[in-house]
TrEMBL record:
Organism: Glycomyces rutgersensis
Name assigned to this protein: Redoxin domain-containing protein
Chain segments annotated as transmembrane: none
UniProt KW Cell membrane keyword: no
Protein origin, superkingdom: Bacteria
């Protein structure tokens, strides 16, 4: 895709530096990498070619039309290879989303790295290769391989979330056009627009957004004191923006614009880093944020002007319990009642809720189990849901995005039913004048579907990842790290190393779970558990070694390592943290 119909081979990349980006469009880390690559594309021009290889996780992502929509939705401006059967993924031995492979102009692989946050390393590698091959005369910059698709003519383009405004109008985030659009109650007439429509960051009445998503109205008394009426989750800018409806004036109210890498120890809302805020809901006197980028919920107090963690540990998985111990996976939709905060956890295809200081799962089985199955909630399955609303009768309507369906969970019977199907990637649900309205994102519209109730017994899909065989009992885990050239470990604020280890199921680890300040750790695997996933989060702080005013750097990566216990398994597991 994005080549004007031309097929590309590795030979076509000779003479240029190439970055192969293995991604899947459900994955928030992959979306972060798309934005990290933009400045490299701009800096190096035709000396660098980026090829996205889309290797899907969810069944819906195998649909080439869905991929084409995602390429447009996220503004991907480089060629993309559709790899539905993971053929190219396997050929390059990719094991994680995202994975980046750097190929030099002679066709040799010179670096491979997994995860996000590699902009500095990539810039250094690409810069060195461009300089080297320019000097050798082996760099070829003969035109771009990217061919843009013609612009589409629709009133909205990939709308994300919507809310009803006082008076009956509807405000929707027009995400791919980086603006907010106010619609009349007929859901078609455009009343007004907030934002210039250009990707960027600017306050005032000529505001700029970057793929905005969630919206939330503040209570009237809070809005009067705060000076703005609603809050927008400005997702790719990693900000919250306040909007005054009377004149469309926009103010940044939370976030620095930098993506969160670690706790910076402040509660001042304008000094904390956020990470892809995706949705918002007012609950128990504060605004709750679905912080999709780090698998947490955060809270924001618009009067105290503070923000911080509300629930979650940053571990990406599914675990219930007290809010400071739960695991989530890309929470993307919120809806609140007086006593419950409902959320959809998109990567675990789960519907969950917060009640009395704890999180519970109503529907969902884990990171790699999904499908379209109705009936008892314990057996029901969804596929990457992004939005939800509480209906007047107490049921929870879920925008089951990758199933193209509107689902309903009934808390009184703990059952799930399908209310509507054949929707184009529904991303949110609102109740408007007594009727249910769906944001049909890939159809670029809001629609009120005809509702029925049917039981669907579809397929149960399970993504299987290759497991590493490990010997029973003692297991040595080592994180290998070397500071980048010209840097050294930074002991200014104590140990520069932090490694956190947990497991799914938690009982997998008899010893060794928790946080430590060493790169190596001795673990003990419990008896009686045959397989599971080791969750490892490692970070290292470094600083420039020789500079007069040294800059600080943080390298952070997390892994979910599937393992199985076998007598012929390894007794040492090594992970590479790349500076």
């Amino acid at each position: 895709m994005n080549t004007g119909g031309r097929d590309l081979s590795l030979a076509d990349l000779r003479g240029r530096v190439a970055i192969i980006d293995f991604w899947t469009f459900c994955c928030i880390n992959c979306l972060h990498v798309l934005d990290e690559l933009r400045p490299l594309e701009e800096k190096y021009g035709d000396a660098l070619v980026i090829i996205g290889v889309h290797s899907p996780k969810f069944e819906h992502e195998r649909d080439p039309q869905a991929l084409a929509a995602a390429v447009e939705r996220y503004g991907v401006e480089h060629p993309v290879l559709d790899d539905p059967n993971l053929t190219t993924w396997d050929a390059f031995a990719a094991r994680a989303w995202p994975t980046l492979v750097v190929i030099d102009p002679a066709g040799y692989v010179v670096s491979t790295m997994a995860g996000e946050g590699h902009l500095e390393a990539l810039d250094a590698i690409v810069g060195e290769l461009v300089a080297e091959h320019t000097a050798d005369g082996t760099l070829d910059t003969a035109g771009s391989l990217y061919v843009a698709a013609p612009p589409a003519e629709t009133a909205l383009r990939f709308p994300g979330k919507a809310i009803e405004l006082p008076g009956g109008d509807v405000l929707v985030t027009d995400s791919a056009r980086h603006r907010l659009v106010r619609l009349a109650p007929d859901l078609e007439t455009v009343v007004s627009v907030i934002g210039t429509g250009e990707r960027g960051r600017a306050d005032g009445t000529e505001a700029q957004f970057n793929e905005p998503q969630g919206l939330a109205l503040l209570p009237a008394e809070v809005a009067a004191e705060a000076g703005y009426d609603l809050v927008v989750a400005d997702t790719v800018n990693h900000l919250l923006r306040g909007v005054r409806l009377a004149d469309g004036h926009v103010t940044t109210v939370a976030g620095t614009g930098k993506q969160w890498r670690m706790d910076n120890g402040t509660a001042d809302a304008l000094e904390v880093d956020l990470s892809s805020p995706w949705d918002l809901a007012w609950f128990e006197g504060e605004l709750i944020i679905a912080m999709a980028g780090i698998h947490q919920l955060w809270s924001f107090d618009p009067l105290a002007r503070t923000a911080g963690v509300y629930a979650g540990t940053t571990v990406e998985s599914l675990k219930d319990g007290p809010l400071d111990q739960v695991w989530m996976a890309q929470p993307s939709g919120l809806a609140a009642t007086a006593d419950r905060l409902w959320l959809v956890d998109s990567e675990t295809s789960a519907l969950r809720y917060v009640e009395r200081g704890a999180m519970h799962t109503a529907v969902g089985q884990g990171l790699f189990d999904f499908g379209h199955v109705d009936g008892p909630a314990a057996d029901a399955l969804m596929q990457h849901p992004l939005g939800l609303a509480v209906l007047p009768d107490g049921r929870v309507a879920v925008a089951d995005t990758y199933n193209g369906a509107l689902r309903a969970y009934d808390p009184s019977t703990e059952t799930v039913a399908t209310l509507a199907a054949d929707l184009a990637e529904p991303s949110d649900v609102i109740v408007l004048g007594g009727k249910v309205v769906v944001v049909e994102s890939a159809a670029h519209r809001l629609t009120a579907p005809d509702l029925g109730e049917a039981a669907v017994s579809g397929q149960h899909h399970r993504v299987t990842r290759k497991r590493t065989k490990v010997a029973p009992g003692a297991l040595r885990l080592e994180v290998l790290f070397e500071p980048a050239a010209g840097q050294k470990l930074d002991y200014t604020f104590g140990s520069p190393i932090q490694v956190t280890i947990s497991a799914d199921p938690p009982q997998l680890l008899a010893e060794g779970a928790g946080k430590g300040e060493e790169l190596g750790r001795d673990l003990v695997l419990a008896d009686g558990i045959e397989k599971g996933v080791l969750q490892v989060v490692a970070q290292a702080a470094t600083c420039d070694a020789e500079a007069e005013h040294p800059a600080c750097h943080l390298t952070r990566q997390d892994w979910g390592v599937p393992i199985e216990i076998a007598e012929d398994g390894v007794s040492t597991l090594r992970l590479v943290l790349r500076a």
